[in-house]
């Protein structure tokens, strides 16, 4: 107080020009920025509309209800050339999500194993994992896709060879050809819903049992046989129900047709090439992240666990990994996002993902701006949802101080 | 892929922010920059748009680009080529990246109206067909039920294919590629039983196969594919120049004027020929089009008449050996017909 009084000579705040008023300044800057952004967006949009009008084109999303007219190779929901563009985009989105989800799961598992493998004391395992990481990390993902598509899957037996094979061995049910992997398709009969319900009930019961078992272990120090009881609840119980309701499941086998195998289930080489390439490519990065995470946990932590009498497996699972996860999760999120975005390389091998389908629509309808907006919106949404989930997971794993 | 997205984004950006000139004047722009920017086939479609080992472009579509350059500048070399995939081609033209799209593009009503283009000249009357390996023993497209068919995405071909199989109550499995080269490779590797595109393209692709004699083009032609140059709508001056460059080639064939005899024909007594070649004293045809008086002479000197161009690129003088057929002159049972030049 004394100091302030000494400087200004009175109790009033110092008089400064409005130009130097920090509060006013920041408001002015923000307003100016906002005006510039709004003006730029308005100008761009206005220009688009004017230029489109001059080219006798219209902007808008009404075209999504027009008939698509083209067929798609991989459809998980009902689709024909009579469906709308909107439906085609849905097919593409689902295909993108399927390959991204499958890729993320596989990449995580492979990455975790390879990352831990690189730290192994076994010379051969550690070196093999290093070679894997260095190869896949240093090749562009597009080349990895081509490698699988043209270098591996295209060289598998032709469909004619398979036809011949079926003649020689009529009991064969599983075929690998350069047109994909054929296998029997399950056909769910009446009452299969009951089995599914039993499965869900089994899982819920298993979770409940685990919670009870943990509580009992804390109270008495004795651990009930969690693994066996849970296996029984999740697998045996639905199996008993399945038999009880009369085995409502039959198989549809793939048999030779005129040009392709008919019936059954097929996983096409386009999906396989993309899925394998994305998984193995991303797994090499995840392996490094996992290794960094484990290395990041101080050695004293595992030594302390051993001193407490934990076995090496227990020490890793209960002490090291939970701490490593805190280091692993943030960069892991980036890898998941990369994988999702890299799935747009599907066009290279003709997998009907969002970009491939959108590109076809763009070409047939000429609606470039609309399609590009849809692409960007969807990829941003998928990535943000993934980020949100991973941030939640990260918060859950974060150090909780008690 | 990245290139395609960039093209599309540039297209969007240019549509959005560029080009504020009140009325499109492509001829003025072309004259100002000193060359014609021509969109051609980017997958080396022999006979239509392909580069030789020295990097020189040749083909029926390329000849049309050269003809326009010859008409505007009197110099057929003043063309710059933009190789385009089927998918990139429309945004490239819409955005103004190219002045002419001469990329074996089918003229259809939706492209003419909805996409904002103008088509008139048809430099190749084509139709969609199927190619199969001979070992399949297939003799007709109607036997293809259940087959896997390789097709390029974003083409009228893709739509006709769906319609044809549906109309004939047949079933098929599309295997769709964005680039023709990838479709070629997949067909070659046995990923598909049949390959479908315009018949002219099939002949060209067949030649690229390791052993062309193992493959055959089925007799059915399932669609009409009039291929021709497209320009942006609302620029009738430029549209006229491109259209009449093609008609000049056809008219030259009708008159019997060739690269070899064009100078001689200038002295012809036939008033039609004199008018066409700009030898009539008060002829204003060239000027009315916005071109020099001798525009037709320059075109014929540069690329020859339509018949010469056809034979050199896709006919007997080329490995494709496609017969004139529908592309013969109207006087010889074909569809090539030039409106009167007077």
UniProtKB/TrEMBL annotation, chain A:
Task: From the Swiss-Prot or TrEMBL record, state where the protein is found.
Answer: Cell inner membrane; Cell membrane
**The keyword Nucleotide-binding belongs to this UniProt entry's keyword annotation:** no
Write down the InterPro entries for this protein, in alphabetical order: AA_ABC_transptr_permease_3TM, ArtM/GltK/GlnP/TcyL/YhdX-like, MetI-like, MetI-like_sf
Q: Output this protein's name.
A: ABC transporter permease subunit
**Tree of life domain:** Bacteria
Its family remark reads:
Belongs to the binding-protein-dependent transport system permease family. HisMQ subfamily.
Q: Which GO terms describe its biological process?
A: amino acid transport
Q: What is its main location?
A: membrane
TrEMBL record, chain B:
Instruction: Tell me where in this chain the Solute-binding protein family 3/N-terminal domain is found.
Output: 35-265
Q: Cite a single Pfam family from the UniProt record.
A: SBP_bac_3
Whether Signal counts among this entry's keywords is yes
| Annotated protein name in UniProt | Transporter substrate-binding domain-containing protein
* Species this protein is from: Shinella kummerowiae
Where does the secretion signal sit in this chain? Answer: 1-24
Q: Which GO terms describe its biological process?
A: amino acid transport
Family as reported in the entry's similarity comment? Belongs to the bacterial solute-binding protein 3 family.
Keywords (A to Z) from UniProt: Signal, Transport
């Amino acid at each position: 107080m004394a100091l302030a009084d000494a400087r200004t000579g009175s109790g009033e705040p110092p008089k400064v020009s409005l130009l130097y008023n920090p509060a006013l300044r920041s408001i002015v800057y923000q307003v100016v920025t906002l005006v510039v952004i709004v003006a730029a967006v308005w100008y761009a949009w206005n220009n688009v509309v004017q230029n489109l009008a001059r080219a006798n084109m219209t902007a808008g999303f009404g075209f999504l209800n027009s008939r698509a007219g083209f067929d798609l190779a991989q459809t998980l929901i009902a689709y024909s050339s009579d469906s709308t563009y909107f439906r085609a985009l849905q097919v593409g989105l689902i295909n993108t999500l399927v390959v991204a989800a499958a890729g993320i799961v596989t990449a995580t598992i492979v990455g975790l194993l390879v990352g831990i493998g690189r730290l192994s004391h076994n010379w051969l395992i550690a070196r093999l994992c290093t070679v894997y990481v260095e190869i896949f990390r240093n090749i562009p993902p597009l080349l990895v896709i081509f490698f699988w598509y043209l270098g591996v899957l295209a060289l598998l037996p032709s469909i004619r060879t398979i036809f011949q094979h079926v003649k020689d061995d009529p009991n064969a049910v599983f075929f690998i050809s350069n047109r994909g992997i054929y296998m029997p398709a399950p056909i769910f009969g009446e009452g299969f819903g009951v089995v599914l319900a039993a499965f869900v009930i089994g899982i819920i019961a298993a979770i409940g049992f685990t919670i009870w078992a943990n509580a009992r272990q804390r109270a008495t120090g004795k651990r009930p046989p969690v693994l066996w009881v849970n296996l029984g609840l999740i697998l045996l119980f639905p199996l008993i129900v399945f038999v009880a309701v009369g085995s409502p499941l039959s198989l549809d086998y793939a048999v030779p047709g005129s040009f392709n195998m008919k019936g059954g289930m097929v996983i096409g080489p386009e999906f396989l090439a993309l899925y394998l390439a994305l998984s193995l490519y991303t797994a090499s990065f995840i392996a490094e992240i996992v290794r960094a995470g484990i290395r990041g946990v101080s050695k004293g932590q595992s030594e302390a666990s051993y001193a407490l009498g934990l076995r090496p497996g227990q020490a890793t699972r209960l002490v090291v990994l939970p701490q490593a996860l805190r280091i692993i999760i943030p960069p892991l999120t980036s890898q998941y996002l990369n994988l999702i975005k890299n799935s747009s390389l599907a066009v290279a091998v003709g997998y009907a993902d969002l970009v491939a389908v959108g590109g076809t629509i763009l070409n047939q309808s000429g609606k470039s701006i609309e399609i590009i907006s849809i692409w960007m919106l969807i990829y941003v949404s998928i990535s943000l949802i993934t980020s949100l989930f991973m941030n939640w997971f990260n918060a859950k794993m974060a150090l909780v101080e008690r | 892929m990245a290139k395609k997205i960039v093209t599309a984004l540039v297209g969007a950006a240019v549509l959005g922010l560029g080009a504020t000139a009140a009325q499109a004047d492509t001829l003025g722009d072309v004259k100002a920059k000193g060359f014609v920017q021509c969109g051609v086939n980017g997958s080396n479609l022999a006979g239509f748009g392909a580069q030789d080992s020295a990097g020189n472009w040749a083909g029926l579509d390329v000849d049309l680009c050269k003809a326009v350059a010859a008409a505007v500048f009197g110099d057929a070399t003043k063309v710059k080529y933009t190789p385009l995939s089927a998918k990139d081609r429309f945004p490239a033209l819409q955005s103004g990246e190219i002045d002419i799209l001469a990329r074996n593009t089918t003229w259809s009503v939706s492209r003419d109206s909805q996409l904002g283009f103008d088509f008139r000249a048809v430099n190749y009357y084509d139709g969609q067909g199927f190619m199969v390996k001979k070992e399949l023993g297939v003799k007709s497209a109607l036997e293809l039920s259940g087959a896997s068919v390789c097709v390029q995405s974003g083409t009228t071909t893709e739509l006709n294919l769906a319609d044809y199989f549906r109309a004939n109550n047949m079933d098929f499995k599309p295997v769709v590629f964005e680039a023709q080269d990838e479709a070629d490779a997949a067909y070659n590797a046995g990923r598909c039983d049949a390959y479908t595109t315009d018949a002219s393209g099939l002949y060209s692709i067949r030649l690229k196969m390791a052993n062309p004699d193992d493959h055959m083009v089925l007799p059915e032609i399932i669609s009409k594919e009039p291929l021709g140059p497209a320009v942006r709508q609302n620029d009738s001056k430029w549209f006229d120049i491109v259209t009449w460059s093609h008609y000049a080639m056809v008219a030259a064939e009708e008159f019997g004027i060739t690269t070899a005899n064009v100078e001689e024909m200038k002295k012809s007594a036939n008033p039609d020929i004199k008018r066409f070649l700009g030898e009539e004293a008060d002829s204003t045809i060239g000027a009315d089009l916005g071109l020099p008086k001798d525009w037709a002479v320059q075109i014929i000197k540069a690329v020859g008449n339509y018949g010469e161009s056809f034979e050199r690129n896709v006919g007997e003088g080329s490995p494709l050996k496609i017969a004139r057929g529908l592309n013969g002159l109207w006087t010889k049972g074909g569809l090539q017909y030039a409106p009167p030049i007077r």
